[in-house]
Amino acid sequence: MVVLRTVPAARKWVQAARSAGHRLGLVPTMGALHEGHRSLFVEARRRCDRVVASIFVNPLQFGPGEDFDRYPRSFNLDCKIAKEEGIDAIFAPSASEMISEPPEINVSPWRMGELLCGVSRPGHFTGVATVVAKLFNILQPNTAFFGQKDAQQAVILSRMVQDLNFPITMVVCPTIREQDGLAISSRNKYLSPQQRERATVLYKALHHGEQLILAGILKPDRIEAEMHNVIKAAKGVELDYAEVVDSLSLRKVKKIEGEVLLAGAVRLGKTRLIDNLIVRLAKKRQKV
Amino acid sequence: MVVLRTVPAARKWVQAARSAGHRLGLVPTMGALHEGHRSLFVEARRRCDRVVASIFVNPLQFGPGEDFDRYPRSFNLDCKIAKEEGIDAIFAPSASEMISEPPEINVSPWRMGELLCGVSRPGHFTGVATVVAKLFNILQPNTAFFGQKDAQQAVILSRMVQDLNFPITMVVCPTIREQDGLAISSRNKYLSPQQRERATVLYKALHHGEQLILAGILKPDRIEAEMHNVIKAAKGVELDYAEVVDSLSLRKVKKIEGEVLLAGAVRLGKTRLIDNLIVRLAKKRQKV
User: Fold this and answer.
1) What is the DSSP code string of A182-202?
2) Annotation marks residue B22 as catalytic
3) Phi then psi dihedrals of residue B37, to 5 deg
4) Which residue in chain A has the smallest CA separation from B101?
5) Superfamily covering domain B2-173
6) A21, A27, A194, B97: least buried by Cβ within 10 Å?
7) Is A173 helix (H, G, I), strand (E, B) or coil?
C-alpha cells in the first residue's frame, strides 16, 4: 500500500493505474476509520481492480465552533486498517496541499444543503461538495463509495455527479450499526459511557417512525411528532431535527408514499450525532 | 468531422480518442462562430492531436429578459467553419440532453461572479461555470481554449480549474478585433449600421485608459473617470461599467501596479457589448 501526500503524486499513481486498464475505486474518508469504512473498502475491493482511500479532515466542511480541532485523527491505525482491507493507496494530503488558498469557486448545493443538517451547519455541504469534487478531479475514479449513514451527503453528492456529469458511478453502502442499533460513527468516540447508552435513542426514534409508517400511518407530521416525542423523553439528549423527506429530492412530503428518508440529528453535550432510515412502501401497501 | 448529439456519444468518442493516446483539446462555444472562434480553433489544432468544439447556447447563463431566444444560431455555417479549421468533432447537444432538469448542485463563483458583468447579470457566471464544468466532465479534454474577450469568464474558469483541481490546462487566446478596434462578438450582428459605428467607443475608452496608465497615471479612480467620460460623450451608447481591477483576483486596486484589467460594458439599444484590455506595467516603470 502506497501513501500519496501530494496532488502530483496522486495524479501519477492514478495515471499508472488507468493506463494499465484498471478500474479504479475511491473511498473518501476523514480518517478515524471504523467498521463503516471497512464495509466501504470491502465493497470497493469487490467492484474495482484498484482502490484508493483518501484521508483528509476537510476544514471547509466544519463551521466556526465545530469540532475540526478535536476531530479524531489516527493515521497510523487508519493505515493498518486500510492495508488489512487490501486498499492499494492512501491519499492523505496536508491541508495546504489540498487547499492552498480559500476557494473562490465552490460547488454549491443551495437548497439541498440548507435542509436537515444544513440548518444547524450552514455551509457544511458546500464544503463537502467542493472537496469531493476536488478529490474526484485529482483521483478520477470509475466508482466512488459513500456510506448511507451520511444520507444527506450521499444524496447531494449523487446529485452532484448527475448535475455536473462526473464520469463516476456512485455506490452508497448500508449503515453499519452497533448491536444496540447505534450507527457507527467516528464521533461516537466523544461519548461518555452514560452518553453512549443514551445515544441509541436516535435510532430508536427513527425505527419507531419506520414501524408506524409500515403500520399504515402515512402522515409525515404525525410520524415526525412521534419521533420527536421519543427523543424528547430521553435524558441528556437534545433534539436537533427528525424529519420525513423524499429520499431523492430531500423535499418535505405531504403524504408518505414510495420511498422516504427518515433523518435525524441529536446532541449529547457537545457531541452531535446523525442517523437515518430509508423506508420503501410497496405499491400494494400504498393502495390499501 | 463528426457531430455528437448526446452525452453517451460524446463519451464514446472521447474514450476512443484518449485510448489512442491523443491529446484532446476543447473549444467551448455558443455557436455563431466568427474570427475569434477561428483563432481558438487554430491554437487548439496547434497544441492538440484531436479537437472537439462544443456548440451549446447555454440557457443557464441567460437571465430573464436577456437575449437567449434571439441569440444568433447558425449551425450549418458553424459546421462549415469548424470543418475548414480542421476540428475533429462538434458536440452539439439539445438543451434537454445537456440539462434534463434544473441543476440542484451548481458551480458558484460567489464574489468573482458578482463583480463587473455580474452586477447587471446576476447568476450569469454560475450558469457559465456550471455548464463548463459539465462540458469538462463529459469531454475530459487535456486543454481547453477560451477567448480573452470574455475576460471575467476566463478568470473565473481558470480559477475553477485551480480550485476544483480539474486535470485541464487552460489557454486564453487574445481578443480578435475589427480594423477599427471593435472586439469581434456574435452580438455585433444585433447592431444597426449606425450603432456599429458608435460601438467602437468602448475600445476607444479602454485604449484611452491604457494610454493614461502607460503615461504614468496610476490612480484607478482617475482612469475610470476618464474612461467613463469617453463613453458618456458618445451618442446612443449607455455606460454599464468601465473599471480597473486586478487581473487575477478581479478586486479593485488602490494603486495601479503590475498587471491590471481594464474591463467595460456598454449598451446600444438592446445590445450589450463587452471588451477589456490587460495592462502590464514593467517594474522599471513602476519605480519611476
Assistant:
1) PBP-GGGGG--HHHHHHTTHH
2) no
3) -65, -40
4) A163
5) HUPs (3.40.50.620)
6) A21
7) strand
For the beta carbon of residue A245, count every other beta carbon within 10 angstroms: 21
pLDDT tens, A194-231? 999 999 999 999 999 999 999 999 999 999 999 999 99
Give contacts of B156 with chain A, Cβ < 8 Å: 104-105
Question: What pLDDT is stored for residue A192 in this prediction?
Answer: 98
Is residue A284 very low, low, confident or very high in pLDDT (cuts 50, 70, 90)? low
Does B112 contact A at CB distance below 8 Å?
yes
Interface contact A106-B104, CB threshold 8 A = no
Distance from CA of B248 to the nearest CA of A (A): 11
Chain B residues close to A103, C-beta within 8 Å: 163-164
Task: Pick the residue from chain A with its C-alpha nearest to B109.
Answer: A105
Contacts of B13 (CB under 8 A, 6+ apart): B2, B4, B52, B89
**Beta-carbon separation of B165 and A138 below 8 A:** yes
Is the CB of residue A103 less than 8 Å away from at least one CB of chain B?
yes
Domain ranges of chain A: 2-173, 186-287
Question: Concatenated DSSP letters for chain B?
Answer: -EEE-SHHHHHHHHHHHHHTT--EEEEEE-S---HHHHHHHHHHHHH-SEEEEEE---GGG--TTSSTTTS---HHHHHHHHHHTT--EEE---HHHH-SS--SSEEE-HHHHHSTHHHHSTTHHHHHHHHHHHHHHHH--SEEEEETTSHHHHHHHHHHHHHTT-S-EEEEEPPPB-TTSPBP-GGGGG--HHHHHHTTHHHHHHHHHHHHHHTT---HHHHHHHHHHHHHTSTT-EEEEEEEEETTT--B-SS--SEEEEEEEEEETTEEEEEEEEEE--HHHHH-
Q: Domain spanning B186-287 has what CATH number?
A: 3.30.1300.10
Here the cell at position A210 is 419506520
Kindly state the percentage of chain B with pLDDT values over 70: 98
Which residue in the list A22, A34, A37, A208 is annotated as catalytic?
A37
What is the predicted ipTM? 0.96
Tell me which of B132, B142, B164, B246 to substitute to probe the interface with A (most A C-beta atoms closer than 10 Å): B164
Query: pTM for this structure?
Result: 0.96
